[in-house]
Amino acid sequence: MTLKSVLVTGCSVGGIGFALVEAFQKRNLHVFASARNLSTMSQLEELPNVTLLPLDPTSAVSVQTAVESVRAQTGGTLDYLMNNAGQTIIMPTLDFDIETATKIRQRYPRQHKLYLYQRNYTLDGVTGIYAGSKAAMTAITVALRLELAPFGVGVVTVNTGAVNTNTLASGANFKLPAGSVYKSIKKEIAGRARGEDGTPRMEPSVYAEKVVGDVLGGARGQIWRGGYASIVRFALSKLPISLSLSQS
User: Fold this and answer.
1) What is this structure's pTM?
2) Could you report the per-residue pLDDT of 50-65, keeping only the tens digit for each?
3) What is the pLDDT, as a whole number, of residue 126?
4) 134 classed as catalytic
5) How many domains are there within the chain?
6) CATH number at residue 185
7) Any catalytic annotation for residue 117?
């Protein structure tokens, strides 16, 4: 029997993508796990039905190579695509340097060039420029949901709350640029970057099990998983936008 297949981007150990690969593999899918550097997910190579692929979502050549590799192994189709690759940066908008902001803005939309298969699903996780890039990704996902529907392709947006991943480790080196207007609260911002803000965070394995269960269960539209995700969902659906903005 031919196994259903899924491609997951951003699968470095300790992150959401790594946990998603394990969750899909447990459900007997052929999982294509990708990352820019294969060594960051080498622990996955011993799992049955898991294929490791080098993939940089910002490189058109890398994306096309991955597409051709998957097509060759699946006969040209893919059941699920989980767009998880990304970069977390905690920094006030006014303190972002232009080069970093530009890279982030370009990174997320380009991932959708991976949509060259049948019956796909997308994973879109959702602070300044970083938040803006995620909002753009969500908007693109909504458009794709409409544009791909005639071809039998379902698109799901996963709104991700707080998850205890190793991306928080980068916060140990957090530093505001010289002359920042936020210098007086740098300790608070640094604590947020390290995940030391008191927010309850869901473990990646728990998060992945829930999301994979949702996707394989036929979820449509939007999924809300992770710490505080359900609270945010309730607030956005029940509270007037004017009230939400006034409290931000």
Assistant:
1) 0.79
2) 999 999 887 889 988 9
3) 29
4) yes
5) 1
6) 3.40.50.720
7) no
